[in-house]
Design brief:
This protein is an all-alpha fold. Helix content is 66%, strand content 2%.
Length: 1332
């Protein structure tokens, strides 16, 4: 049949059975093995763990990056791409996956896990909740627009709920119950991430939004209860979308039922009035199935004959629908039950919650007097009706009628009425214009909503109509014409809608259309003199861009991103407005500082500024001229603003406390300075500024918080809290920190880009408050909590209780400054300017700084770092390592080391050496010490810091740690019943091993531990004492930590391989396992394969002679297979050993290979594995090829039948034979070897028709079509040589060679090859013909 692409569904049954292996005994599958429940259960657990590990590995390997479709920025407004890429507030729009196959793989994996994990062994998942969740959140933070991660996180939360994972865990219980740190870390992680997603998803659409809603609504009720207000909008959205997508309604109802039971009444009751009205839609959509079925039956009963079958089927369908509820009916029943369970006092919110405003909109007429008269043209009379009073009801039906026929009819009527209104409006008197304006004001918002309706008919009716209305109303001659303004305001109200992102995007298109047609319908002279509509539009955009409301600012940015293509093409508009727009949007970006990043205001606003930057770059020459332009906010009204003024203003804005705005100003400054007259670089331009105005000018800009006119702002005037002269509040403390951060950012960026000389700026100017502020921060705030800030203020009430949110915000600001200080110090120390260090020693490079660095490295949570924040987890260690490396070669090293030793005490090192892997006490603390040691090792400070700390341990620390882990995995007293090690303890042990190896000199000891043959025997509980599992301690150790151990062995290749291969006789199994593991690990990564992999192969081949005991005739089959596996991996990494005698190990390797091929004691199925690597040996010198040919002939004589149909089909011998022939054909295809062609042609031509005839023919065709001309000639000659071999082959066989091999090759080869072949054999062929 037709080949079908396999999907995850094809493998579900297999994995269900595998994960149910504990039930095999019930099915009678394992009675013959006399196995018992307990080992099957532990096998079950092992399989489950490996399954989860594999899922995480696959997720890690997938490349989920996306490319944004280019907007063809430099093209004109008529370019092709501009019609494809539409500006939108949807962050997932216009994206293409870099590797679509990886997304397909993720989709299958997510669906697979969703079906499997929720139904199988949820109890096994307990130890994976934190790690699985943590990995997914890491990836989701990296790729926030990939819905699969949210689906997997929903699955995680559902399992956690099933197994009551978070029972007894909450924000209040943390300090009382430190027994399960993983659960608390998990609670904090999901709490923080859940909130982020709840806010972020307001911008999402479609399947991504559905996935986020499912995840957020599956969070534990304790997380929801902490901040229920954040999660209510998610529930409302789920119920809105659930009307058209039933699964979301079920998710919402599950959540609401769960919350109403578990969240305290006083917390949730105030929100029912916001939630319950969204359930009304489910009760309105009453099911008409029964009526419809009866109608159809009655219609068809009047027919005769064949229709009886139809009637019977309809009746069956009716019976079915009565027995089985439709999904919509099931949801409706759940809604009714839920409302009933909530009780009358609460569920009355369903109908009573409508606000008086909403009631007014529905019940009050739009205009008092009728202006829209229509004479109905009956035959005998023309009565006049007024359409005004019908409009509100028609609009409501068009927008929200549940019945589609009613909706479409209302839309068609409304379309006609609007067209009629337009005609009527152009004819009425001045007095009636007021009424028409009021009607338009109500009508435009309705038309815009209908223009982006999901219903196709509605959309097709109203989208063109709205665009035509824009064309009509932009033809006004008067500034602020009322109807034009009404339309413009309706569009801008739509673009700032906080809920409907489709409406926002449609209104974005309308804004573009508005500007485009305003330009089209005015002359260039009018635009230069007074562009009326453009002024109206920009005036309103400025108002929205500077509005406190987030969505209004988002709408303003989206509007500009939609219209900038039209704007940039009109020089007159650019000349007048570009600077004004730039200043406004930079102010808007500053206001977005406190917005949640996931809402998209920062992104959209940054895009607007990027568009403006490109426009300014293109028009720079004209903008350098000082001509009369619109004056931006904050500039002198009589000023002739040019590009130089803007660059000076941007320099001042670089010191703004608002982070995103500051960064954008720095970027603009850096890119616009070269466009100024004189084309100077930023550094030379700044040098001139310093010469003209002095260093103080620049310091004022950096430390003045961006306020040129406010002379008492920034840390230059307020270097400490005391200088603020105001009572304490958290807000005041945060504002001061933002000002310090701004100055730090400026110095960091400008010094880092070599725009200014650090000693010139920091060393000479005495009035700077920067150093004083840093000293104050390091001494009083950095290592203490929010109460320290309170004490530093001169005024205000002390002893306030701070909310968790205030503490979180304060810690976030403080820790951001700490990170920036560390970056600044790293940069200063890397610059190697000793004069500068002397200047900074007093305030910055002091003992306070190095004490702080020691704490950041060893215990970041103690000073406020949130380790549940993914960015902190990933980024903080790198920043710490950079600073530690910078200090390494400097006089401050001793101070840093002594501070480190205070944090990493001898007791903590002893704790690491005496850790109990099976009792989870202090594992968290030990993990943080481990992380610190890793950072110190990367920086090269570990040995010197730990040297003085390990005196009490006795052994060197590296040996002690290795011994601790080795003995800890199998404690002496418990070896008889070895406990299973849980995931987090295993990760800790792995960390200890890595630390041990990083201290160096462990290789010899490690190999001897791996080769340790002490057996661990674990009796099977429930079985008699005869049944037990045995394995060596070294093998168990290696299987637990393969990657870490392989990494250490690969770092000490030669000694490790020599020591291992010296034990090939004593412990062959372990040597084989370790060597194969090392080869596998070096093969995985391409770069490692080319360097370390080749070195490893050389080390193995150098010692190959020591493996002779594995492949000699009298050795066991397992060891022969082990050497074959080893050889195949060696050849995969580096095949140079198979090139012939040029390699010193060739003769031994070749002897190994031919001995295994000709070994009479090995079965065919084992030797087939040797055939796989045959292509490596087919290009050898002549004498070696003869040897190989003899070996292959012996191999075929020993195992192949004389006739291919000799073995009965389906038997083991037949299957082994077929498999081996397939492998030989594959080897021929890969190598295109004439030797193999001859051997396989002989095998084929023993029969008149081989059982694999077709496979042979396809293979022969492939080798000749894929080969070069020279290769084709060689193959033709080889087949011809067989045909001419009269002594060795009988005539019938030679005939077969000619027909089934040579002829196949001739028919498929190129004409050039055929010509050359015939030239070579023509003489011989003629002799044969003549002799006959």
């Amino acid at each position: 049949g037709k080949w079908r692409v396999p999907s995850y569904k094809d493998y579900l049954e297999l994995f269900r059975s595998l994960l149910d292996c504990g039930k095999m005994k019930e099915f009678g599958l394992v009675e013959t093995f006399q196995m018992f429940d307990s080992p099957l259960k532990s096998l079950n657990q092992l399989l489950y763990d490996e399954f989860i590990k594999s899922v995480l590995k696959i997720i890690e390997k997938l490349d989920l990056t996306v490319d944004r479709q280019s907007q063809s920025e430099e093209g004109g407004s008529g370019d092709i791409n501009s019609s494809i890429v539409i500006p939108t507030s949807d962050p997932a729009a216009n994206l293409q996956p870099t590797k679509p196959k990886d997304f397909t793989a993720l989709f299958n994996l997510v669906e697979f896990c969703g079906e499997l994990l929720l139904e199988k062994h949820t109890d096994f998942f307990e130890q994976w909740v934190y790690r699985f969740g943590h990995e997914l959140i890491l990836r989701s933070t990296q790729f926030p627009l990939v819905s699969g991660f949210y689906k997997l996180l929903s699955v995680t939360m559902k399992i956690a709920q099933k197994i009551n994972y978070f029972e007894g865990v909450g924000a209040k219980t943390r300090k009382q119950c430190p027994k399960s740190p993983d659960k608390f870390a998990c609670f904090a992680l999901f709490g923080k991430f859940g909130k982020e997603v709840a806010i972020r998803m307001k911008q999402y659409k479609d399947e991504l939004l559905a996935s986020c809603l499912t995840f957020v609504l599956s969070l534990p009720h304790d997380i929801i209860a902490l901040d229920i207000k954040t999660f209510i909008p998610a529930l409302q959205t789920a119920f809105k979308l659930g009307l058209s997508h039933i699964p979301l309604a079920d998710v919402g109802l599950d959540a609401l039922e769960h919350w109403s039971i578990h969240i305290s009444k006083h917390a949730i009751e105030p929100y029912y009035k916001d939630i319950l009205p969204h359930l009304d839609g489910y009760l309105k959509t009453a099911s008409n199935e029964i009526e419809n079925n009866w109608e159809m039956t009655s219609v068809n009963t009047s027919s005769k004959g064949g229709n009886k079958v139809l009637i019977r089927r309809l009746k069956n369908a009716r019976d079915l629908s009565m027995n089985e509820e439709s999904p919509a009916a099931a949801v409706r029943r759940r809604v009714v039950r839920l409302l009933g369970s909530l009780g009358g006092q609460i569920n009355r919110s369903l109908v009573a919650a409508a606000t008086s405003e909403e009631m007014m909109k529905k019940c009050v007429a739009w205009v008092a007097e009728g202006a829209l008269s229509f004479a109905v043209p009956f035959a005998d009379m023309k009565p006049v009706i007024y359409l005004d009073s019908f409009l509100p009801h028609i609009s409501e039906l068009a927008l929200s009628a549940n019945d589609r026929q009613t909706k479409v009819a209302a839309c068609e009527l409304l379309h006609s009425v609007v067209t009629y209104m337009l005609g009527k409006g152009s004819q009425i008197s001045e007095g009636q214009q007021e009424t028409m304006y009021k009607l338009n004001k109500h009508m435009f918002p309705v038309l815009l909503r209908l223009g982006c309706d999901v219903d196709k008919v509605t959309n097709q009716l109203f989208e063109p109509l709205v665009l035509q209305l824009i064309h009509w109303f932009t033809n006004n001659k008067k500034f602020e014409s009322r109807d034009t303004v009404a339309l413009l305001e309706a569009i801008l109200d739509g673009i700032v809608d906080p809920v409907d992102s489709t409406l926002r995007d449609f209104c974005g298109n309308c804004v573009q259309e508005f500007l485009k047609w305003s330009i089209k319908q005015t002359t260039p002279e009018q635009q230069q003199k007074s562009p009326v509509n453009t002024k109206s539009l920009f005036k309103r955009l400025y108002s929205l861009a500077l509005h406190p409301n987030t969505f209004k600012r988002l709408g303003a940015a989206l509007a500009f991103n939609s219209l900038y293509r039209e704007f940039r093409e009109e020089n007159a508009l650019v000349e007048q407005f570009v600077f004004e727009v730039l200043v406004v949007y930079l102010e808007s970006l500053a206001l977005a500082h406190s917005d949640d990043k996931s809402l998209g205001t920062v992104q959209q606003c940054s895009d607007s500024i990027d568009h403006l930057k490109r426009i300014i770059k293109q028009k720079a020459r004209a903008l350098n001229e000082p001509v009369k332009r619109r004056v931006p906010r904050g500039f002198s009204s009589d000023q002739m603003v040019c590009l130089t003024d803007i660059v000076m203003w941007l320099l001042a804005q670089c010191g703004r406390p608002q982070t995103e705005c500051r960064h954008k100003c720095m970027e603009l400054f850096y890119e616009l300075v070269p466009l100024l007259p004189g084309n100077k670089t930023p550094s030379s331009w700044l040098d001139e500024i310093i010469k003209t105005n002095g260093v103080s000018f620049l310091v004022n800009k950096f430390e003045g918080a961006g306020n040129e006119h406010d002379k008492c702002s920034g840390i230059i005037f307020h270097p400490t809290f005391n200088d603020l002269q105001q009572p304490f509040s958290v807000r005041a403390a945060l504002q001061w920190m933002d000002m310090l951060l701004a100055a730090l950012d400026c110095y960091n960026t400008f010094i880092g880009l070599h725009l200014i000389k650090p000693n010139e700026l920091l060393g000479t100017y005495q009035k700077s408050g920067f150093m004083k502020a840093l000293h104050f921060f390091l001494k009083n705030l950095a290592m203490r909590d929010i109460t320290a800030a309170e004490e530093c203020f001169a005024y205000g009430i002390k002893g306030i209780l701070f909310s968790p949110r205030e503490r979180e915000e304060y810690n976030y600001s403080k820790c951001t400054i700490i990170v920036r200080i560390m970056e600044f110090v790293s940069m200063v120390l890397e610059s190697c300017e000793q004069d500068l260090w002397k200047v900074l020693e007093k305030d910055l490079l002091s003992s306070n700084l190095f004490e702080l660095v020691a704490i950041v490295v060893t215990d970041p949570p103690s000073i406020g770092f949130n380790m549940a924040d993914v960015q902190v987890m990933k980024g903080l260690p790198d920043i710490s390592v950079r600073l530690l490396k910078a200090v390494l070669r400097l006089p401050y090293r001793d101070t840093l080391e002594s501070n480190m030793r205070k944090q990493i005490t001898p007791q903590s090192i002893e704790g690491l050496c005496n850790v109990d892997l099976y009792r989870r006490t202090d594992h968290d603390k030990l993990s943080s010490i481990l992380l610190a040691c890793k950072q110190l090792h990367k920086a090269g400070l570990l040995n010197s810091v730990l040297m003085c700390q390990t005196g009490s341990i006795g052994l060197p620390l590296n040996s002690k740690l290795l011994s601790t882990v080795y003995k800890g995995i199998a404690p002496g007293d418990e070896r008889k019943s070895l406990p299973s090690i849980d995931n987090s303890s295993k990760m800790l042990a792995d960390g200890l091993l890595q630390l041990s190896f990083s201290l160096g000199g462990q290789c010899e000891e490690l190999v001897s531990l791996l080769l340790n043959t002490v057996e661990l025997s674990v009796p099977l509980s429930g079985a008699s004492q005869r049944h037990f599992i045995s394995f060596s301690h070294g093998e168990y150790f290696y299987n637990l930590f393969p990657e870490t151990i392989n990494g250490e062995l690969l770092r000490n290749l030669n000694s490790a391989v020599t020591q291992l291969m010296g034990s090939t006789r004593e412990n062959p199994k372990m040597v084989s396992i370790v060597l194969n593991g090392m080869l596998d690990q070096s093969f995985k990564d391409h770069t490692v394969r080319k360097t370390q992999g080749i070195l490893l192969v050389n080390a193995v081949l150098k010692n190959w002679a020591k493996l002779d005991s594995w492949w000699l005739k009298d050795s066991i089959p397992e060891s022969k297979m082990a050497v074959l596996t080893l050889l195949s991996k060696v050849l995969q990494i580096d095949s140079s050993v198979s090139y012939g005698n040029s390699h010193e190990a060739f003769s031994m390797v070749f002897q190994t290979y031919t001995t295994i091929l000709t070994d009479s004691t090995l079965a065919l199925n084992l030797k087939t594995k040797a055939v796989i690597i045959l292509p490596f040996f087919t290009h050898l010198p002549e004498e070696n090829l003869r040897e190989l040919k003899n070996a292959l002939n012996q191999f075929i004589a020993a195992h192949f039948p004389m006739k291919s149909d000799e073995f009965p089909k389906g038997t083991l011998r037949y299957n082994n034979y077929i498999d081996c022939v397939k492998k030989l054909l594959d080897a021929l295809e890969l190598s295109q070897s004439p030797l193999l062609l001859k051997i396989l042609t002989e095998v084929l031509c023993r029969d008149s028709k081989h059982v694999m005839e077709e496979a042979f023919q396809i293979c022969f065709q492939n080798i000749v079509t894929r080969g070069t001309c020279e290769k084709q000639v060689v193959l033709l000659e080889a087949a011809y040589e067989m045909f001419r071999n009269e002594e060795m082959l009988p005539d019938t066989t030679r005939q077969f060679v000619l027909d089934r091999s040579l002829l196949t090759l001739i028919l498929r080869c190129s004409p050039e090859a055929l010509r050359e072949f015939f030239c070579k054999i023509v003489k011989d062929a003629m002799e044969i013909v003549q002799s006959r």
